Amino acid sequence: MQHTHTPEIAPQTAFESRYASSPAEVQGMNTAQLRRQFLIQDLFVPNQFRWTLSFFDRYLTGGVLPVDGSCPLVAPEQLKAAYFLERRELGVINVGGPGRIIADGTIYDLGYKEALYLGKGTRAVEFSSMDDQAPARLYLNSTPAHQTYPSRKIARADANQLNLGSVDTANERTINQMLINQVLPTCQLQMGMTELKTGSVWNTMPAHVHDRRMEVYFYFEVPEGQAVCHLMGEPQETRHIWVHNEEAVISPNWSIHAGAGTSNYTFIWGMAGENLDYGDMDFCAINELR
């Protein structure tokens, strides 16, 4: 059932902080500790904002599932801000049904796999679904911002596309660079989406690290009953976390971030740090991984 009027509701906000961890700490973690520190689950709860703050670059990962009306974006108490984007920028990618975002009176309609950038200083933001039978699932990333850049919607056709990998190495994929400086200006937030082709399962090989940036990987389009084995850790001291559909993993700047699925899948990558050079990577030879 479609609707055009979405009465405002007062959504709940869940907020969790994750402290930064050193490589030495991670070496001693068991499976439960790794998952507690780096895995983000339950991002989409009806009419609720779900936020996880990583102290790596103060990166916020979140989600909102508007069902019964529009969900206004409020600043969690932990941000000590008058409004959410007072000192932050925000990236949104829709992984559900058609959604609508109203930002300071401007309407942005987001279809499946479309993105929106909201710049620092945007005060009034509301999220809603266009069809309450197929609600929007709005995946959110936010970083501190020092300057205001224009808000802008990025459709699939606006993305910078890279076709990489091959069937022979099971990593044929399309990288959709969406909120990056080749497409639009941002302070430090960068986001994009990598789609694995049928028969391909590996992402981000050869693996790499970059001390200049941290990342968060959000996995979706993982078929029911399938999973992705996400690899993390130092190149010579790797660990793994099994990830299911619509779950995310925090990747420290000293860690590799790669994975292989039991099926093909799609993931959204978000980055923050001190440079905007997408190609700034310190690669690790595959035969040197441990």
From TrEMBL:
Species of the source: Spirosoma sordidisoli
Keyword Aminoacyl-tRNA synthetase belongs to the record: no
UniProt-recorded name of the protein: 4-deoxy-L-threo-5-hexosulose-uronate ketol-isomerase
GO MF term list: 4-deoxy-L-threo-5-hexosulose-uronate ketol-isomerase activity; zinc ion binding
Catalytic activity: 5-dehydro-4-deoxy-D-glucuronate = 3-deoxy-D-glycero-2,5-hexodiulosonate
Cofactor annotation comment: Binds 1 zinc ion per subunit.
Record-linked InterPro entries: KduI, KduI/IolB_isomerase, KduI_N, RmlC-like_jellyroll, RmlC_Cupin_sf
Pathway listed: Glycan metabolism; pectin degradation; 2-dehydro-3-deoxy-D-gluconate from pectin: step 4/5
Keyword terms of this UniProt record: Isomerase, Metal-binding, Zinc
Keyword Zinc in record: yes
Binding site for Zn(2+): 208, 210, 215, 257
Cofactors demanded by this protein: Zn(2+)
GO annotation terms (biological process): D-galacturonate catabolic process; D-glucuronate catabolic process; pectin catabolic process
Family: Belongs to the KduI family.
Task performed by this protein: Catalyzes the isomerization of 5-dehydro-4-deoxy-D-glucuronate to 3-deoxy-D-glycero-2,5-hexodiulosonate.
Gene behind this protein: kduI
Signal peptide, first to last residue: none
CDD domains with a match to the protein in the record: cupin_KduI_C, cupin_KduI_N
EC numbers: 5.3.1.17
